[in-house]
Amino acid sequence: MEELFVHGLEWTTKDLFCYPNEFIYWSIQIVMYPYMTGLVAGAFVLSSLYHVFGQEDLKDIARFSLVFSLALLPVAAMPLLMHLQQTLRAIEPLLTPHFTSAIAAFGIVFSSYALIVISEIWFVYREFIVAQVEALKDKPGAGNAVMRFLYRGMTMGAYDVSEKAIATDHRAVKILAAIGIPVACFLHGYAGFIFGSVKANALWMSPLMPVIFIMSAVVSGIALCMLTYIVIMEWKKFSTTLARGRGDQAVKVLGGVELDVIKKTSRYLLGFLIAAISLELLDLIFRGYTAMKSWDILRSVMYGKDFINIFVLQYGLGNLVPFTLLLLPKMTIRRMVVALCLVLYGVFMMRWNVVIGGQAFSLSFAGYMHYHLPIIPHNLETFKEGLFGALTVAVTPFLLFWGINKIIPCLNVPKID
Amino acid sequence: MSCSRRKFLKTTIAGAAAASVPLSALKFISPDEVRASVGDEKTRWVFLVDTQKCVGCGFCVKACKLENEVPYDVPVTRTWVERYVVTRDGQTHIDSPDGGREGYPTAKMNDEVIDPKEISKAFFVPKLCNQCQNPACVQVCPVGATYQTLDGVVLIDRKWCIGCGYCVMACPYGVRFFHPVHKVAEKCTFCYHRISQGLKTACVDACSFGARQIGNLKDPNDPVTRVIMNERVAVLKDEYGTKPQVFYIGLDKEVR
Ligand code: SF4
Ligand code: SF4
Questions:
Q1: In chain B, is it the N or the C terminus that has fewer CB atoms within a 10 Å radius of its CB?
Q2: Hey, what domains does chain A have and what are their CATH numbers?
Q3: Which of B80, B129, B256 to mutate to test the pocket of ligand 1 (most atoms within 8 A of CB)?
């Protein structure tokens, strides 16, 4: 007999009265989706800071974060694909978009954003690609031939590297980066709208939802970029130390620059963190004060079964602790790293508490549902919507980045004189 | 010269023929025609539930599962019956084990036995899709796989649903689920395959007590319409603005 699989039954337990068909239908992948989209947006915005606003100190990280946002890009759509019951039909929202639905435009927004990122990268790397075609010309070996073929394809016939052509490239990059910023924010605010507009869900339904989502996305995006920036700078310091010895001037300069940039950026981080927390608290206070029909069950979820998740892990460990760490005087890189990791964790917990917390109570307001994340998969479903599915999503950008970096290197350590 | 003219004519004819192909294709899938082929505007299917008459036997749930091929042994179901017991201390106990498929043979509710002397009132409430006039599920479907027919029934295209679950989340009544075999969204259709052929729904036919009735709201002589128009009926959760079309006689304030 064919195995009957009731979607949601596997990881849902019910308490008191829930309707028979109620389960936790939106699980871990839907937590990953807004989380990853937020990171994409953050990485892109950071690279744009250099390309549009000419922040020179971000020059090195700008290339990196642009390519990294390309690596993150498929991963924003991946959780959605893994979540679909009919993954093979994923193209349909593009074929017959039904625009009264908030998800219908996802494919369009997502692919326009992808186009912007890819073309921007093309313009940034065009000169390099043409140079590669030349350099590989006389090199023997099948590998080189394949690479040269690839690069030739990537030039798309544009071999002009005159000064004028390169200047045009730069202008194109600037324009694309400028268009990209609002599109990146839209891509993310949109995720908030998907939840905020579900009127059947007492926890999600709120016009503040998209704004809260954008704020926390910017927070997580900045945090991830700062973290990667630190990693890169530490790597640079390390390689310079190897090359020149510990006490070299260059190492000290690098350390100084690193701390300076991080301190400057952390001010933005703090600002957005404050905005995100205030909005969330406003939402909470408003619900308590107006005490609509749903408040009884919401309160019992927030102050009862989800208390640890919401108040201890999200607000406490994820917001309050890093907030204090960032405000304390005499900032060090090590403390910064701890604070940034906690900020990233806090944003993740926020997504969790919205997505899973929103399904923690029955639509009947008379019962509760509990989510048990499938750890060891025993079929495709428990893999896709379980711990390993989520980890796959989390690891993919790094693998992709590794691959992309082989073709268009963005991590080369510039010489310091 | 003449040759090129002939060529020109040829190209023109070929071009016109080619252009007419997509035109006729467009006409073929014009939304109006599709709409016209699904239901007609002279009918608005509605449902009437008399909670006073329901005894909680669960025959309707069984009949529905068999008729609509929702596997019997899974907890999901297109229609279900809820039991409400209000005790003297003002507490409300609700349950619906397996959707009430096996009836309610015991007094045990959620692992708790309620002393009959403590009961102040008790009743059953059958539930099904409300075939809303303003359905939240249709609004949110990203591919249009969930749609409303002209005679008011909300249906799902099993060949087109991508299984995103947005409609499941959007329905305030919790009637939707994923079909365990087809792996697409599933819900009550008022047995559209039957009512459109002049039959009654499986659950209406299965109910020996007349608790369930289906009718056409646009026909003033329909007995269901007469009850809805002339007597006091209520609907579930009208605060969501979905304009549900399942009407209840004797609905209690405790019903969720
Ligand atoms: S009851 Fe739910 S599934 Fe049925 S039409 Fe209304 S919103 Fe859609
Ligand atoms: S699960 Fe299917 S019917 Fe429901 S919203 Fe998604 S595509 Fe539409």
A1: N
A2: 28-355+373-407 (1.20.1630.10)
A3: B129
Percent of chain A predicted with pLDDT > 90:
46
Query: What spatial distance separates the first Cα and last Cα of chain B, rounded to whole Å?
Result: 83
pLDDT in tens, B116-155: 999 999 999 999 999 999 999 999 999 999 999 999 999 9
Nearest CA to ligand 1 atom 2: B171
For the record, the structure tokens of B248 come out as 């209840």
Q: Give the separation between CA B143 and CA A90, rounded to whole angstroms.
A: 10
* CB nearest A21 (choices: B145, B161, B176): B176
Distance in Å, alpha carbon of A146 to nearest chain B alpha carbon: 38
Check pLDDT > 90 for residue B66. Answer: yes
Q: What amino acid occupies position A347?
A: V
**How far is the centre of ligand 2, averaged over its atoms, from the C-alpha of B138 (Å)?**
9
- B6 sits in which H/E element: helix B2-28
Instruction: Give the Å distance between the CA of B172 and the centre of ligand 1.
Output: 7
Q: Say yes or no for a CB contact (<8 Å) between A4 and B181.
A: yes
Q: Report the alpha-carbon distance of residue B190 to residue A373 in Å, rounded.
A: 36
Paired residues of B87 in beta bridges = B119
Alpha helices in B90-239 (DSSP H): 136-140, 166-170, 192-195, 202-206, 223-230
CB atoms within 10 A of CB B35: 15
Q: How far is C-alpha A46 from the geometric centre of its chain's CA atoms?
A: 12
Q: Return the CA Rg of chain B.
A: 24
For residue B157, the distance in angstroms to the closest alpha carbon of chain A comes to 13
**Residue A14, SS3?**
strand
For the stretch B154-167, pLDDT in tens is: 999 999 999 999 99
Mean pLDDT across chain B = 89
Q: Say how far apart CA B179 and CA B156 lie, in whole Å.
A: 11
CA B144 to ligand 2: nearest atom? 8
Selecting from A8, A96, A200 the residue whose C-beta is nearest the C-beta of B143 gives: A96
Q: Does B63 contact ligand 2 (Cβ within 6 A)?
A: no
> Which residues, 6 or more positions from A214, have their beta carbon under 8 angstroms from its beta carbon?
A185, A188, A189, A192
What pLDDT, in 10s, does the model give residues A55-106?
Answer: 776 676 778 788 888 888 888 889 999 999 999 999 998 899 999 998 888 8
Q: Which residues of B touch A22 (CB under 8 A)?
A: 174
Q: Which of these, A348, A287, A286, lies nearest to A317 by C-alpha position?
A: A348
Contacts of A83 in chain B (CB under 8 A): 164-165
Report the SS3 class of residue A379: coil
Quick one: closest CA in A to B94, which residue? A17
